[in-house]
Amino acid sequence: MEFSFSIDAASALPIYAQVERGIRQGVATGILRVGDQLPTVRELAVMLRINANTVAKVYRDLERVGLLETRRGVGTFIAVREKKPTKRERERRIAEIRADLLARIQMEGISLLEMIEELNSIHTNTK
Amino acid sequence: MEFSFSIDAASALPIYAQVERGIRQGVATGILRVGDQLPTVRELAVMLRINANTVAKVYRDLERVGLLETRRGVGTFIAVREKKPTKRERERRIAEIRADLLARIQMEGISLLEMIEELNSIHTNTK
DNA sequence: ACCTTTGTACTATTATATTAGTACAATAGG
DNA sequence: CCTATTGTACTAATATAATAGTACAAAGGT
After folding, report:
1. What is the reported pTM?
2. Which one of B94, B124, B127 makes the best mutation probe of the A interface by having the most chain A beta carbons within 10 Å?
């Protein structure tokens, strides 16, 4: 698997937020590991067909948070694995994911049963 | 159940998009039905603690799309039920929901099995 | 030492988002 | 007819987002 994601310029979600999400998802899913080098500001800008300043902003923001580490003249690297949330926090997030999913399937006219079966089918096919 | 949602001013998603999502979700979930009157522009602005212009923009946009119907001096109403998607379209959306869910639970360190059980528990409790 | 690469820091420009305020047009109801 | 209500249409101001372009500082390689 390779580190890549796409930008939807038409989305209401600003580009910089989409880039940040892409990187965070890469880290969280293990596609990006501690020490891995990211594309350079200019490279990623070309890859995503966005402005280099936008990429630079994301790198800067994520560096401030501690997720990335930048070495001038060298590149930008994944600095840390995201810290484990508390049990309480984890449950809150599960509840949030659940609520979002329910709202969304209801919105699309999909029954909970159908969705569960959809997920079960992946589960049986993948293991 | 009552028509209500909340705005997160800190979200990267612009306020107008959050309002639009709230209304669309209301319609899709059946909380808002054809013919139902929405709060007035000024009322909803107060309810959500945002500017009336932002609400007006959303009403205008949704009217253009045909989801709302506005009668001057009277109010804004739900115009149509969203049209049924084709079978193909529906499957595409299910796949999209599934992909988003998988990415998200992986990002949060939640196993698919755990998520399925979470959903199953709702299912058994609600029926 | 020199050159290249890389992140950083600017300025400038354009577009969008949000708020504030005012005014107007259409409609309902007394 | 009159008034209040409601959506609509403006202007203005501020902030953010995104692009374009230039320049600089730090590090590595030669």
Report:
1. 0.83
2. B94
